[in-house]
Amino acid sequence: MSELRQNTITKDWVVIAPERSKRPDEFKHRKVQDKRAEQDVKEQAACPFCPGNEAMCGEAVLTYYQKDSGKGPQAKWSLRVVPNKFPALVEDEETSRITEGIGNFFVKMNGVGHHEVVIEHPEHFQTIATMSREAVEGILASYIERYQQLSEDPCVQLITIFRNNGPRAGTSLRHPHSQIIASPIIPIQIRHVIEEAVRYFDTMGRCIFCTMIEQEKTVEKRVISETEHFISVAPFASRSPFEIWIVPKRHRASFAKISDVEKRDLAGVLRDILSRLYHGLGDPDYNYMIHSAPYHEDPADYYHWHLQILPKLSEVAGFELGSSIYLNTTSPEENARFLRGIKASNS
To answer: What domain count does the chain have?
Structure first.
């Protein structure tokens, strides 16, 4: 029989109905292949993110260089952060809200903010699952560095770091990249999660995320991996097949405040989890998002940053759109068991 489960943190409901679908190992939708054998050389020649095409992206706001590649113009980059050529938000000093209609019913404002692209690796066919741990650590370091820099803009209220991997996840360029958007508003969904966290803290005197970690470690069956600093779980009320949360064990509201030791540990955990998905499910398309506290608020006691991974293995249809209740046709317990059995690459 299916189950209705509630996410204790967000209060969202989901339907877990594994009898409507297939077993976890049957979600493997294609064989992992050497992507270079599939693609025409023209793809790389036209790719704005490939070495040699730097002028197509404009001036970088942050560049990391390969070790032992020399200095000056001949140095080879390992990661670049550039302004998005087609930004959702643009830099502007005007952030006033404008109203129109009877009783000022309609509200709008200029699309102010920042939109940047993190070009994660010089090789066109790489992905985090196949990169070295050092390369993934560099990606995280760039997130933190840009987060701290963008936070200095007084117009910025929320910084969202995300990665779209594959066409179904919303990306049109194969070259490994992620994005950072700094916006002047905090949407109601983010405020709702903070309000629920505050409510739990006021009642119980502790962080609801910290409690979730303790509960998952006690139950064990949804834990995928655990290191000194992080735990990865298939959430009890997973919205979709193989949803995964990577959560720091140490309480921190802001992702940007993690230590160097935690950053290195997170690089290994993120690479390990994405490698399990890559090998276990045939390199599925996915989105990941880093959920961090709004910068100018200080919910240090009750909010807990985390990284959410959502593989694109199912479609959002009428029921989800009409009710906001997600229908998940797999069991998170079975998904966690399946991923624990996948041997990820250690290189």
So the answer is: 1
Residue of 273, 266, 305, 303 whose CA lies nearest to 289: 305
Distance CA(209)–CA(212), nearest Å, equals: 5
Q: What is the pLDDT of residue 176?
A: 96
> Which of the four pLDDT bands, split at 50, 70 and 90, describes residue 10?
confident
Indicate the burial class of 123 (C-beta count within 10 angstroms; 0-12, 13-18, 19 or more). Answer: middle
- Please indicate, yes or no, if residue 117 is contained in any of the structural domains: yes
Q: How many CB atoms lie within 10 A of CB 280?
A: 22
Residue 347 lies in a domain: no
Among the listed residues 202, 207, 164, 185, the one whose alpha carbon sits nearest the alpha carbon of residue 89: 185
Is 177 annotated in the active site? yes
How far is CA 159 from each of CA 87, 151, 152, 174, rounded to the nearest angstrom? 15, 8, 11, 24
Instruction: Give me the mean pLDDT over the 36-62 stretch.
Output: 82
Max intra-chain CA distance, the chain:
65
Which of 114, 124, 177, 291 is the catalytic position?
Answer: 177
CATH number for the domain that contains residue 14: 3.30.428.10
Averaged pLDDT, 221-232:
98
Q: Is residue 215 part of a domain?
A: yes
Return the residue matching tokens 């590649």.
Answer: 69
Domain-located, residue 346: no
Q: What is the pTM of this model?
A: 0.91
